[in-house]
Specification:
Length: 464
């Protein structure tokens, strides 16, 4: 059963014919077992015309890439195998890409406060979790715990003042070999409150000590460098690639296969409709609701709005919308591989659950992607790999922005023609202007401005 009639259909195709053709055009493909499925395509030119990059965008990509490669060549970096031995040595790469963040990072990258700040407002702001009980594989020596005002660790944990960053997903992964040199990848545990305590591997052992701020300067610094390297891998593989790019493709392919263009869901997600960021964002925080100076959380929670409630007046309408239900089940099957423990629904039963689910989908491709993607070009202490006593810093692949930005709330294609949705969009655009002003005003008082959730910087969707 369909909730929405097909009085208006495209050209000579009926609703059924449109969906049948889309199922042919957009086929699922298993690229690697265990990863979300992707669209079946031999190369970009074999994609359906409606999702293929335009000539203009393709030309922009080529120009951006050639410009970046030319600049790297002029700096002697294109084929260079020389190792960078300090953050200062990287400054020549950033000489034309300086930002307040890059300059601040180059001055403060050794400091514990800045190290901790990046867990809240860096490129990976979703790893931090409130810690009520120490993990068994993190045997901290109590007499070496240093907290403010000589408080006891157990008391501070019960008060909710202790946080844990656990990189257990990296445990057992084999690091790359770069220029013939084997790299090192750790799976650290980081305990933080007002100071830090680090363990670089998951399992306690004689060769896996816990590092404390009272250790020698260079032991402590190297421990933090190894954590930053692990954070880069966790961020790029899980938080950025998997949780935004790969899932965004699943959401889009399922939409194109199962939902006709006249359906409000198609209009909403194709335009990245102004749904609430907050619902999905709040589920990620895991006890970090009241951490001070957590701008990723603060800015994301300020947007609460929606259009789909205008179209669905009852839970029954949600349950009877077969196209909506097929879109949901396709995402569960092909994106989350039918794993019930992911918390992803196989079907939608209420208007509230439908709005929450669509919110998650839209937030993933817009706000969340902005938060974990934009900062890559601004942080000079993102460590790609560690070999011996030397470290490599992310550079060539992220200094040049290949996206084609359409800001949140701006819709080049007019999907909505009805009066009420159009007024809701105008209202939402007004709210975005206010939020931008609020963020800019706050940032004036910050040494490191947080701009990734500024609507002017958030794209409507993952653009590449």
């Amino acid at each position: 059963m369909r909730v929405f009639d097909d009085t208006h259909h495209l050209g000579r195709y009926s609703r059924q014919q449109e969906l049948k053709q889309r199922e042919e055009d957009y086929r699922w493909h298993v690229y690697v077992e265990g990863l979300p499925h992707c669209i079946e395509a031999k190369d970009p030119s074999s994609l359906p015309c409606e999702v293929r990059f335009s000539f203009t965008k393709t030309t922009e990509f080529a120009f951006t890439a050639s410009t970046g490669l030319t600049e790297l060549a002029l700096k002697g970096l294109t084929l260079s195998k020389k190792q960078w031995t300090s953050i200062d040595a990287i400054s020549r790469v950033f000489c034309n890409k300086r930002t307040p963040i890059s300059e601040y990072a180059q001055k403060h990258w050794k400091e514990d406060a800045f190290f901790g700040y990046q867990y809240l407002n860096g490129v990976n702001p979703i790893l931090i979790r409130r810690c009520k009980v120490l993990p068994r594989n993190f045997p901290i020596t109590v007499d070496k715990i240093f907290l403010h005002s000589h408080c006891k660790l157990t008391d501070e944990m019960q008060k909710g003042n202790i946080y844990l960053c656990d990189y257990k997903r990296l445990d057992g992964l084999e690091a790359n070999t770069i220029n013939g040199k084997k790299q090192y990848l750790m799976a650290p545990l980081v305990l933080t409150s007002f100071v830090l305590h680090l363990q670089l591997k998951q399992n306690p052992a004689d060769d896996n000590p816990i590092f404390y701020p009272t250790d020698s300067e260079y032991d402590w610094l190297m421990a933090k460098i190894f954590v930053r390297s692990a954070d880069f891998s966790e961020h790029q593989l899980n938080v950025h690639l998997l949780r935004t790019h790969l899932l965004a493709e699943v959401f889009a392919v399922s939409l194109l296969r199962n939902v006709p263009m006249i359906h409000p869901l198609y209009k909403v997600t194709a335009a990245d409709e102004p749904q609430s960021f907050g619902v999905h964002l709040f589920t990620l925080l895991n006890g970090a609701e009241d951490v001070p100076n957590y701008y990723y959380r603060d800015d994301g929670l300020k947007l609460w709005d929606g259009i789909l409630g205008h179209y669905y007046k009852s839970d029954a309408e949600v349950q009877q919308d077969t196209e909506l239900q097929k879109w949901t089940s396709d995402i569960f099957e092909h994106g989350f591989l039918s794993q019930a423990n992911t918390g992803i629904p196989q079907s939608l039963t209420t208007v509230a659950k439908m709005v929450k689910f669509v919110t998650m989908v839209i937030f993933t491709g817009s706000g969340q992607h902005s938060a974990v993607n934009t900062g890559q070009v601004r942080w000079p202490n993102l460590l790609l790999g560690l070999g011996g006593n030397y470290f490599f810093t992310q550079g060539q692949s992220s200094f040049y922005d290949c996206s084609h930005q359409v800001a949140l709330g701006q819709y080049p294609e007019d999907h909505f023609s009805e009066e009420v949705p159009c007024k809701m969009i105008q209202s939402f655009q007004g709210e975005l202007e206010v939020l931008t002003a609020v963020i800019k005003a706050r940032n004036k008082g910050l040494e490191v401005p947080y701009t990734y959730m500024d609507p002017k910087e958030v794209e409507n969707s993952v653009a590449i």
